[in-house]
Amino acid sequence: MKCRVCKGEAFIKLPAHNAAFCSEHFDAFFLRQITRTIKKYAMLPPAAHVVVALSGGKDSLTTALVLSRLGYKVEALFVDLGIDSGEFSFASRQACEEFCALHTIPLTVYDLRAEFSRGIPEIAKRYPRICALCGMTKRHIMNEYTLTVGAHALATGHTLDDMSASLFANLLRWDLHHLAKGLPVLPSEDGFAKKIKPLALQGEKEIRAFAQLHGLKPVEAVCPYAKEAKFKRYKAMLSELEEKSPGLKRAFYEGYTEQVHRFKEKTARPPRVTCAVCGLPAAASPCTFCRIWRNA
Amino acid sequence: MKCRVCKGEAFIKLPAHNAAFCSEHFDAFFLRQITRTIKKYAMLPPAAHVVVALSGGKDSLTTALVLSRLGYKVEALFVDLGIDSGEFSFASRQACEEFCALHTIPLTVYDLRAEFSRGIPEIAKRYPRICALCGMTKRHIMNEYTLTVGAHALATGHTLDDMSASLFANLLRWDLHHLAKGLPVLPSEDGFAKKIKPLALQGEKEIRAFAQLHGLKPVEAVCPYAKEAKFKRYKAMLSELEEKSPGLKRAFYEGYTEQVHRFKEKTARPPRVTCAVCGLPAAASPCTFCRIWRNA
């Protein structure tokens, strides 16, 4: 296989794009793809200030590095969940710190245990749906932080594999609430920062290659609470289909983004109140975050 | 496992319904299910005259037997495609003839070779997309026949497995044309008979059990032209998901039937003309059927 651009030895073959690239031209191709995604969904104006939610995994590190190289004013936020088991939080934090130091990206660590004298493990004892609670916690902190620093948007490392698997799950259940909000950009609203997913059209294989090419050192520890069996199954199935029909995943998800209006209801949204503790919009006051973490 | 009704030994376990039944009560359950489907989608008024498209397979034989037992005036139509290889058409025809004789259901055989001096194999030489052409041929004949005898509807044996796999395929491609028409009932229009799929909410396992219970002898020969690899893969995947989450397939397809309006366009349909040969509506005159089979 030869590089599509320079005809040199190929570093990666991308059947979905019917192309192969050497490492240099793959790098350029990858950046061009993200640039197009950002433009297509109006994610960021040039040189915008953006907060990247870092987890220490390859997807969020890639998001931060790409946005930084595309000239955005990137800062990173890591939420230390205080999960000691398997050194999960410690190792993740270290991966983020090393990455940010190397690429001179300012990093803020929000340490749950330092803020509230307890981490996820203490909460896990009381709540059966710990992944949902942890997700809520991270979303709250990231949203609040992004609003506080006045950044244009909060970027997360969700990939095409994540987006297409969620889409599949939501279609299987006809979950209209989530089907209405599956775009890779969620606009800012009063009390909600704009959220963007710059890797939404990039597959695992490309991201893995980019991370390898740039010597990224993502954390290898896995969250001891993680149990996403269903989601992993959906991902595996779509990847199996992708094998036989390269480009299927992207056509599925990108096609959906053109059709998302079909899932939006004309009806009014449920009313929101303002949380008396944090001042952010919520379904009830105090909001779940303040109730759980601030004992409000 | 005990029968949900009589507590006798269970003949079948249906995890999707969280139930098990002895053979007698499974039979009653199965008929009740079809009755509900017919009612839910307004398929047939009581005692209506219905043409069942028989192929010789277990699904179409089951459809004919169930509708007959539910008191409809059933007649069957078999299209002999003239596929000699592996005795496919011969064996299928024989299975239909035996079934109809045993259950006193009037059978009409439409023999392509008798009508047009050639069958599918002769056509197959000229056309690469033979499955599409064969489908068009069967649909044309069945529609014309149903209109001619003035039946209320044409029933086909499509199952939940067929419907959910088609739905999945159409969603993967966001094929809006087919997503708009995926209901188990298509209303009659000028030149188009009403089409119904009474087994649309029944899974393979139930249908297989019903066929076994009633000693149906479906044809075992497989069409030598069949190559539905993709469709089979989708079916297998959904069945794998169903294993882990009983009822998933039905929730997926039934959920879609509640949401189908989202895929219907407000725009006008493309204009239709009347075929000068057969007098039925078509995209152009002569219609594809008359062009191919009647050399029009």
What is this entry, summarized?
Two copies of one chain form a homodimer. With 296 residues, chain A is of the alpha/beta class.
CATH class designation of the largest domain in chain A = Alpha Beta
String of helices and strands of chain A: EEHEHEHEHHHEHHEEHHHEEH
Largest sheet of chain A: 6 strands, mixed
| Helix count from the secondary structure assignment of chain A | 12
The total tally of domains of chain A equals: 2
Strand content of chain A: 5-15%
- Give the name of the CATH architecture of the largest domain in chain A: 3-Layer(aba) Sandwich
N-end to C-end Cα span of chain A: 61 Å
Topology:
Two copies of one chain form a homodimer.
Chain A: E1 12-14, E2 19-21, H1 23-40, E3 49-54, H2 58-69, E4 73-80, H3 88-102, E5 107-111, H4 112-116, H5 120-124, H6 130-149, E6 153-155, H7 160-173, H8 176-179, E7 185-186, E8 195-196, H9 204-213, H10 229-244, H11 248-259, E9 273-274, E10 281-282, H12 288-293
Pfam families (chains A, B): ATP_bind_3, TtuA_LIM_N
Binding site for Zn(2+) 2 (chains A, B): 275, 278, 287, 290
Domain 2-thiouridine synthetase TtuA-like N-terminal LIM (chains A, B): 2-26
